[in-house]
Write a structure and sequence with these properties.
Pfam families: Form_Nir_trans. By secondary structure, the chain is mainly alpha-helical. It is about 80% helix and about 0% strand. The chain is globular, with a radius of gyration of 19 Å.
Length: about 270
């Protein structure tokens, strides 16, 4: 095994022996992952992000199916919210690119070495992954809109999810997006600490996003695109009222709050 492979195989516990704290060890593992990601080929990132966007549509699909067949009650809501977690579980376990994960992982290499070159790499991965996720979302929405996959009851549930999300004001989209971005960054951080039970951890964190009604740019994009395709909203509302404030909120929660605070905490230990 090469020296690089040995480093990649190190666990948090092993790194703790050479670093001042557990947080420093998690930071180092996350930074190494970020180094690998920002140096990946653009086309590899793009295809993985397209796959990630398509896969994330399963959050709307699973929740819509549960919403359609569960009673319209508080208990029904708590159960159908579990469907929201499916896309995240599939994307993260399959190691596909998800934009909100990248508000933490590739940011740490830039914060550790804030050069113009690393900033360019960060912008490249953000732009590539976001574009790929949006393409993947659009493909998924096109397929379930054009093809006879779901009955009218389930299709109506999809529209209900999109309508409820679009009822938020732009400020609410932003504030709830901050919460979602912070929770996803926390999830990425936690996955480096737990050695087993990753699916359960993903479920718990993303279930909180679901029951809290927090806005996520990729899942929400699927819902907004589906709503737009069926005449439930216009393009200006989808972009200005949903996409922009949610995107900024996710980035603030994941990068400016969680990543920056975690980085400063670790640097204070040195």
């Amino acid at each position: 095994m090469s020296e690089a492979e040995q480093k990649d195989a190190q666990s948090v516990d092993e790194l703790e022996e050479d670093l001042p704290s557990t947080s420093a060890a998690i930071h180092e593992l996350t930074r190494r992952d970020g180094e690998k990601e920002i140096n990946r080929d653009v086309m590899a990132l793009l295809w993985s992000a397209i796959a990630g966007g398509m896969t994330m549509s399963t959050s709307m699909i699973a929740r819509g199916i549960l919403t359609a067949y569960l009673p319209d009650s508080d208990i029904g809501f708590l159960f159908d919210a579990a469907g929201y977690t499916i896309g995240f579980i599939l994307v993260i376990v399959a190691n596909q690119q998800l934009f909100t994960e990248n508000t933490l992982t590739p940011v740490l290499p830039f914060m550790s070495e804030p050069t113009l070159r690393n900033f360019g790499k960060l912008m490249r991965i953000w732009g590539t992954v976001f574009l790929g996720n949006m393409i993947g979302c659009a493909i998924a929405v096109w397929f379930i809109t054009v093809m006879p996959v779901f009955d009218d009851k389930v299709s109506s549930a999809f529209l209900k999810l999109g309508t409820e999300m679009m009822a938020n004001s732009p400020l609410e989209m932003f504030a709830k997006g901050v919460m979602a971005g912070w929770l996803i960054a926390t999830l990425v951080w936690m996955l480096h600490r737990v050695e087993s039970g990753h699916v359960l951890v993903i479920f718990i964190v993303t279930y909180i996003i679901a029951i809290g009604g927090f806005t996520h740019i990729i899942v929400g994009a699927v819902e907004a695109m589906y709503l737009w395709a069926h005449g439930g909203t216009d393009l200006r509302q989808a972009i200005v009222d949903f996409a922009l404030p949610t995107l900024i909120g996710n980035m603030v929660g994941g990068t400016l709050i969680f990543a920056l605070m975690s980085h400063v905490q670790v640097k204070s230990d040195e």
